[in-house]
Amino acid sequence: MFKESKALYKKAKIFPFIPTGEYYFNKGIKAYDRFDINKAKKYLKRALELEPHEPMIACQLALVHTEAAEYAESNKLLYEVLNELDDRMTECHYFLANNFAYLGLFTDAYKHARLYLDLDQTGEFQEDAEELLELIGLEDDENIDDLTEQEEIINQQDTARKLLESGDFANAIEMLEKAVEDHPEFWPAHNNLALAYFYEGKTEKAAGVLENVLEKNPGNLHALCNLAVFLYYERQTEQLETLLTALDKVQPLLFEQRYKLGATFALTGKYDQAYFWLRQIQKYGFDGDAGYYYWLAKSAYFTGNEKVAHQAWKQLSKINPEKAVVEPWSEKEQPDPRNGEDDVAIMKMLRSDRLEERLYGIFLISVSGRQQELITHSEFKPLDDFSLTEKIYLAHILHSGKKEKIDPDGFVEKGHEIALLLFNRYKAHGMPTRPLLITWFSIFLKALKSGTAFTNKSAIAAAAEYIWLRQSNNKKTQKILAEEYGISQSTLRKYIRLLELHSD
């Protein structure tokens, strides 16, 4: 029996299965119909690799990218179909119009919707294109100026967002204040302005902006999430828990809103909810930025999904190596973005035009647990570009023996100790340290020129804090501040006058 089977086997012919573009295309369509965006994308990409000149495959892959909110990738493919593969596929103009509408680029959306209607008057998407024109407020060219203005607003928001991410809060605030004044009902500008105020340490102003948004636009998810962020950093635990309980009941539709909600839950330590939303949109094909993969990695790790956590961290390292410094599960505490303590922010601070900001950058190196990594960072400013004051300060924090020769009176050392007093005090209460310490280093530099002696460090720290509070329109009294520092009111008043006298 065995020999007979072996003989039959020898006579049999083997026909190898070689998958074609059509095979992968059909698998991609089936996955798309099941709304399995990741698999649809995978199969259609393979189909296009096998048949790169097939416009139908490219067009279908573009639609999958649209479903995953990857509008730039979708547009690239649609333009490729029209310009290189088959300009008779006029429906690509309608798909482009849709994408541009999602991006807020309404003039481009209008242009492609009109092109589609002009080129294919009996097309499958004729009614949809007409509805799209109505939705963006155009049925002719008369309102094109309004659309151009809307696009300019959106471009300004993108610029402001990049300024926020780079730590340039002052310029972001200037741009956003003008946007809010010019367009009082454009809520994304309000939300970004609230963040900018908060990161700049202007907590009351930030809260006021959010209060205004939620009063005029109740249920605004971005405003509610920003409020949760503020409460978290301000350590308002009870209010935060109440808000997070309410947010847990929200079921957002848009990927962007799900991302915002997931990131907010991750920041506030609600890792189960965070992982649910962030992983869900990834399964649907969402391909996020570095921030997305940071929060996905963190929430995955703390929910026991370590494989996903390490995959997300690997993706973050690929997208933005500068942000992939310390794994989120290795951090002692969540860095406060108001203080600019990440590597990129510190390197930028060291190159600031303002000497007080450069000193703050050196101070941050001193309190970091990664001094060696920071001073050997590829973006670390060349030592020859440091001023004498900076060199003395850097020598002090690195415990170099040169400090005794350069700073014999210990002036820089005492200035650093006062900075530490202020830093530890505000850090312990969850308050932003950046604006206060930059104010202190500004006072320090003026006192350095006038030769003011730093004899009573606690009193000087209290006086510097009072000056900063007054500049910030904070109503804290001298009596309360003196009690907090354990000094008399008369001593506090004396040092306030001293710092003001020698810092004018």
Automatic annotation (TrEMBL):
Which InterPro entries does the annotation name?
CellSynth/LPSAsmb/PSIAsmb, TPR-like_helical_dom_sf, TPR_rpt
Intervals holding TPR repeats: 21-54, 187-220
Which organism is this entry from? Lederbergia citrea
Q: Does the keyword Repeat apply?
A: yes
- One Pfam family named in its UniProt record: TPR_16
- Which taxonomic lineage does the organism of this UniProt entry have? Bacteria, Bacillati, Bacillota, Bacilli, Bacillales
Q: Which PANTHER family match?
A: LIPOPOLYSACCHARIDE ASSEMBLY PROTEIN B, TPR REPEAT-CONTAINING PROTEIN PA4667
Residue ranges of the TM segments: none
**Which of UniProt's keywords are assigned here?**
Repeat, TPR repeat
Designated name of the protein: Tetratricopeptide repeat protein
